From TrEMBL:
Name of the molecule in the record: Lipoprotein
Signal peptide segment: 1-17
Superkingdom of this protein's organism: Bacteria
Keyword annotations from UniProtKB, A to Z: Signal
Length: 237
């Protein structure tokens, strides 16, 4: 007899429970003929690079919103400034304010206290260039491409160091190099930290996959060698 009241109570609770807010869904990339020339690792690396660059562009937009004086040094609008940086990164063109420097040298220059150019643009360009260099200088990968796990690992650590410098280093006037995370008493905004964390995690995963690929190749060889000798079925008639 208690079953009916219990069911009614549960039904009432379910009707009163708030509907979960939508959080989107996984969006897969469209299939292309180029995938025929990619291994699973190549494909994951290509998707990871695409997502890492998108993360850097989001960081650039966030930095420009918190530091509008930076984009005003090089462009007439925030959108145009972002486009210029994006075009330079994807075309592998040098960024003028970095004096021809690339990779970690560009990143280091962008984070020096006395850098007077568009620091947000220089920082994101230097970070992107460093990541691309760690991937062999490419943003799309095919069967002929390989990865150095140590270089990838180093790139992830470089991003950790860059994020720490951005949050801790001051200019000669005692001001932050760029306003980013806000950990004040009135507000707690760590969206920058989360975006950096995504980039670091993607690169670390690819480094582990690269190491695992060669390790598993050796194990598979031994398994086939042992199996071919000892794991054969015996005749029963």
């Amino acid at each position: 007899m208690l079953i009916i009241p219990l069911c009614l109570a549960l039904g009432a609770c379910s009707m009163l429970a708030p509907t979960p807010a939508p959080h989107g869904e996984v969006q897969g990339a469209s299939t292309s003929g180029a995938e025929l020339g990619q291994s699973d690792v190549n494909r994951i690396a290509t998707l990871g690079m695409h997502d890492n660059l998108d993360s850097l562009y989001r960081l650039l937009d966030k930095l420009y919103r918190r530091n509008p004086a930076e984009w005003k040094k090089t462009a007439g609008s925030r959108e145009l400034a972002i486009k210029r940086v994006r075009d330079a990164i994807e075309a592998r063109q040098p960024w003028p304010e970095l004096q021809g420097k690339h990779d970690i040298q560009a990143l280091s220059l962008a984070l020096t206290p006395d850098f007077s150019g568009d620091r947000a643009a220089a920082f994101i360009y230097g970070a992107a260039d460093m990541i691309i260099v760690a991937h062999g200088g490419k943003t799309k990968f095919y069967l002929i491409d390989g990865f150095d796990a140590q270089y990838l690992y180093n790139a992830a650590r470089n991003m950790e160091i860059a994020a720490w410098i951005l949050n801790s280093r001051k200019t000669a006037a005692g001001q932050p190099l760029l306003l980013s995370n806000d950990m004040s008493e009135s507000e707690r905004n760590i969206s920058f930290e989360r975006e950096f964390g995504k980039i670091i995690a993607r690169i670390d995963l690819l480094a582990e996959m690269t190491t695992e690929k060669y390790r598993r190749a050796g194990i598979s060889y031994l398994q086939n060698l042992v199996g071919g000798t000892f794991l054969q079925f015996l005749p029963v008639r």
